[in-house]
Write a structure and sequence with these properties.
alpha+beta; 5-stranded antiparallel beta sheet; 5 strands; about 35% helix; globular
Length: about 130
């Protein structure tokens, strides 16, 4: 009986911790969007995917994504990204779907492992 109670308590703690991480990631992305999306006043977020992680993003890929973002009409010029303090650690990924007017977008944000800043993003206009 004690083992079952301990297991239930452990599951609850893990669930709350993951909810906290999801909230942190969403908050970082929303702050970034508020600062750098040109028409933020007309932006409506429709969905955040669950956070994930990747090891497959290196400095050259980050540089290419940052350069590509310069040509995205949605974002203001001069985006200041955070740095990945430990390139050996995984980056966190969160995808966000949003609308601006009639256009629908689905962007992928890459956050540092501590989820304190946006390191890069990839934007995909859906329609």
């Amino acid at each position: 009986m004690k083992a079952k109670a301990c297991f239930t308590a452990l599951c609850a703690v893990l669930l709350l911790a993951s909810c906290g991480q999801q909230h942190q990631a969403e908050s970082v992305v929303e702050d970034f969007m508020q600062q750098y999306v040109k028409d933020y006043g007309n932006l409506r977020i429709t969905e955040f995917d669950d956070i994930d992680s990747t090891r497959y993003i290196n400095d050259s890929i980050i540089g290419a994504m940052r350069k590509a973002t310069e040509s995205y009409a949605v974002y203001k010029p001069g985006i200041e990204y955070g740095e990945n303090p430990d390139p050996k650690k995984k980056l966190k990924i969160v995808r966000v779907s949003y609308e601006i007017g009639e256009a629908t977008y689905n962007d992928t944000y890459y956050l540092d492992n501590g989820m304190q800043c946006v390191v890069a993003l990839k934007s995909n206009k859906m329609q």
